[in-house]
Amino acid sequence: MKIKRFWAVGLLIAATLMAQGQIRFNVYYEQVINERGELADFALECLGQDNAILQSDTVYTLEKIKQVTERPANAKTKAEPSPAPMPPAPKHDPNHISSVPKYAPLSEEAALAVSPAKKAAAVAKQIFSIRETRNYLLRGEVEHFPADGKSMELMLNELKKQERALMELFLGRKTVNKKKETITVDVDAEELKIEKAIARFSEADGIVPINDTTGEPLMLHIQRYTQRVPADEQPKKKKAEPIYENRIVRSSMKITYDDNVLFERVIKEK
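Predicted structure:
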């Protein structure tokens, strides 16, 4: 089972929320989309690169879990709540840049190549030509040198985009997306021990329904501890025996996945 990392996160939850019998969690995970390049088989031969993506797939990896804190219904605020932040933009592998065009700008030789091997050789030639042009620019050895620093920067960025797009034909493209799923769990407020699956997680599909056995379960464990304490209502007669009752004084909660603890906290009941 592939796990990126697990963070132990404090559960900021009051006993009153536990008594309501419902808890919400945010599950944060990562989606990695690997796209094989058209010329992946020639990456080592033409470029000396052995890190090409050889198979297109999508992999999901758990990151962390946090409890959703709720504002009491009677809470007063002085201002309207801030709007929810925009979801983060997809992140690309460090070997790529987000502005790389989906389709590479092929030279005429590469576009008219009659076989994959000839096309790979032509694209590699084009990559080397772009690098040579960039080096000439950096050394000032060009006939038409850019007029100013801004023009120079734009020209270098354009060459970089073209090179990266052509490199992706060999190495492929990796895109990383951050995901979040909110899970609502109903719990028995009086039960002393609870163990239940709240969702399932699959490396191939991310969060899946509880009845989907392609994923491993995220297990919620709650253990409540009682103590014999004097009851709130006592006999009014002075010589009467005091009344005691078992009262929940402490609860522990954790969420596990594949025997790893993602989330844990001990709660002192009020």
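Summary: The helical segments are 15-20, 43-47, 108-111, 116-139, 149-171.
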